[in-house]
Amino acid sequence: MGGYEMKIAYIKPSFPNEKRVGLLPQHLSYCSLEDERRFEQGYGETLDIPDAAYGNGAGYSRESLFEWADVIYCLKVPQPEDYQYFKENQTLVGWVHPLGSGKHFMENCAKAKNMTVFDVTNRISIRHHQGKSEVINIPRDITRKNSILAGYASTMQAITLRGGILKDKVVAVFGSGNVAYGAMKYLAQKGIDPLLRRRSNLALMQREFSSYDIFINGVEIDEGEKAIVTQEMLDSMKPEAWVIDVAADAGRAIEGTKYTSIDRPIYTDEQGHTFYVVNNSPSLMYRESSEAVSVGYAKHFWMKPMSYWQSDFCIAP
Fold first, then answer.
1. Phi, psi torsion values for 20, nearest 5 degrees
2. What's the pLDDT band for 222 if we cut at 50, 70, 90?
3. 86-105 mean pLDDT
4. Considering the domain 144-279 in this protein, what is its CATH number?
5. Which of 146, 205, 207, 270 would give a disulfide with 197, using CB separation of 3.0 to 4.6 Å?
């Protein structure tokens, strides 16, 4: 290995409409020197970053990196066209969302190839291997600004597609975290004062749900937890009502919903309700989001060698 402990490949995400760059050249200085890093050709092209900015480790073909690497870093969950390139016992790092958009990858690639998967997120980061899931020692809010952008960008795109919003409409935001805060930031700019609902007043929200013109969800639920919004609640809504899931917790926080995409961001059910469930909306603001993601990962994950993350020392107490 030429003195390096492990070989890490940084590949461009093939997730639809994803433009963010997971590691920027200015943050390489935070990364551990114990591992070798190589970058796919054109890794920073969406931000007009030339390969030369990444040094001698840049400009490699995608296929050669899969073959070379011990560890693959892909910002968003890999798509089926990449499954064939992963090797037995390889490691993946990124936003995998094993119970959501990454479920297909986990079941059809990671499990079959005995992979180790690090789902490094703004909430709780988890190492998955051989059916075992362990919380790792990474603080919350490492990419806080990206989460705020998710709420802001989702609300912005959805409301724009709706044709705007008038102040006489009843808008409710569920949640009190970063994503919900981003949604409220956008609404504030439009002069909208939404109803603020949380788990502590869930019963109130259930009673008044039928009065909402726009409902914005800002939370993800845990495995096995009951849905925040049931199908019965959705059935009670006005026909022209909109449901904007800025947390993009499809089919979980809001029963029966399905993912949408940046290029096809909404769908309408048989009752006329419109749903927005885009799970990479920060890519609409990919320059700002790339900065937040890159510095967060560099300072809190890449600063330690992969040998640390593969050991039991990284497991949270």
1. -75, 150
2. confident
3. 94
4. 3.40.50.720
5. 205
